Amino acid sequence: MGNCAQADLSYDPSITISLSNFDIKYAIGKGGFGKVFRVQHKISGKFYAMKEIKKSLVIAKMSASSIMNERRLLGMLNHPFLVNLHYAFHDRNNLYLVLDLMSGGDLRYYFKSYGQALSESSLKFLVSCIITGLEYFHSFRIIHRDLKPENLLFDSNGYLHITDFGIALSSQGNNSFTSSGTPGYMSPEVMCNQDHTIVSDFFALGVIMYESITTSRPYMGHTRNDVKNAILAKQIKLTKNEQPLWTMQGLDFVNRLLKRKPEHRLGFHGVQELKRHPWLEGWDWEKLEAFALESPFKPTKVDNFDKNQINSEWAYTKVKVSAVTSQNLFAGYTYDSTSIIKKHSQE
């Protein structure tokens, strides 16, 4: 992975993409460092999601490494069940990522909009989408480490895609030095600063499934330490008495994903353990990957997002970004997928 990432950072003067190449329509999302806009490429007419990242906030939060980490990974990876990168560029104040437009909104927005548990058949479709994306992601021996409803986006046809790779990390070597993620979705081994592998992403998948079934997370708390103590205190398990409408195979699938010890967790020996589980027996993976299955989720609007969240006040910082600082921290940020495709076709 390291060699690929280094090659991806090399400066390419032929990439001249800039903000002037796009018509900005309106904001459709908001993250920790800026907003996300629906944009249209002026020449091709294609619509994308453009993530605007404020350099001053990145520097103030000492997050340049995670921003560059996501950019490197997006330049390396491309898969139908991920949110893929098309262009990346920056100016004096901002960084920009131009990504696949996922107009169906994120899974969290769906939870808030409908406020009810998902049926077993509907959740099986969602889980299959996530597994397909993780299978590709994990083939590079990379752990996502922040799998949660906010980072799972629906396209206009109701298929789910994985996004946000800022804290993703190689599973090769000892990872006990880092413990990043979102409390409530972090695996016990990550919470306890232990070495962790791709199986930690399967614990997060179990949390998402549990939340989809019960409308609450299995381990709750006001602080990260509260969540950690809740995990260590008790092994959560769904039962048939609690969920009478669910099959035993479905409940077993969730319960095994939520095993606290990674060696006991479904997927410890690879993603095929999930795909071979009785709950997914007979699932048509080929049709799913060809987008030939009808999704049980039907986005109702052109853009599905929380307008109150988009319009909330933004916390600006007084940190000034010098040209030298920008060059040092964000060297090699530019990317143009069309230029790469053109180069490969000429080789």
Summarize the structure.
The protein has 347 residues and is of the alpha+beta class. It has 14 helices and eleven strands.
Describe the structure.
This protein is of the alpha+beta class. The chain folds into 2 domains: 7-102 and 305-333, Phosphorylase Kinase, domain 1; 106-289, Transferase(Phosphotransferase) domain 1 (Transferase(Phosphotransferase), domain 1), CATH 1.10.510. It contains 14 helices and 11 strands. The strands form 3 sheets. The protein has a 6-stranded antiparallel beta sheet with strand order 1-2-3-5-4-11. A 3-stranded antiparallel beta sheet has the order 6-8-9. Helix 1 (2-8) crosses helix 3 and helix 7 (199-214) crosses helix 9. The longest helix is centred in the middle third of the chain and has 19 residues, at 120-138. The radius of gyration is 20 Å and the shape is globular. The two termini are 23 Å apart. Mean pLDDT is 88; it is low at 1-11 and 342-347.
Unreliable stretches, pLDDT < 50, 5 or more residues? 1-11, 342-347
CATH topology of the largest domain: Transferase(Phosphotransferase), domain 1
Share in helix: 25-40%
- Spell out the CATH superfamily of the largest domain: Transferase(Phosphotransferase) domain 1
Structural class: alpha+beta
What is the rounded distance between the termini? 23 Å
Question: Radius of gyration, Cα only, in angstroms?
Answer: 20 Å
Quickly count the helices: 14
Shape: globular
CATH classification class of the largest domain: Mainly Alpha
Report strand order across the widest sheet.
Answer: 1-2-3-5-4-11
The H-and-E topology, N to C, reads as HEEEHHEEEHHEEEEHHHHHHHHEH
Q: Give the overall average pLDDT.
A: 88
Instruction: Return the CATH architecture of the largest domain.
Output: Orthogonal Bundle
Number of strands: 11
Catalytic activity: L-threonyl-[protein] + ATP = O-phospho-L-threonyl-[protein] + ADP + H(+); L-seryl-[protein] + ATP = O-phospho-L-seryl-[protein] + ADP + H(+)
Enzyme class: transferase
Keywords: ATP-binding, Kinase, Nucleotide-binding, Serine/threonine-protein kinase, Transferase
Domain AGC-kinase C-terminal: 281-345
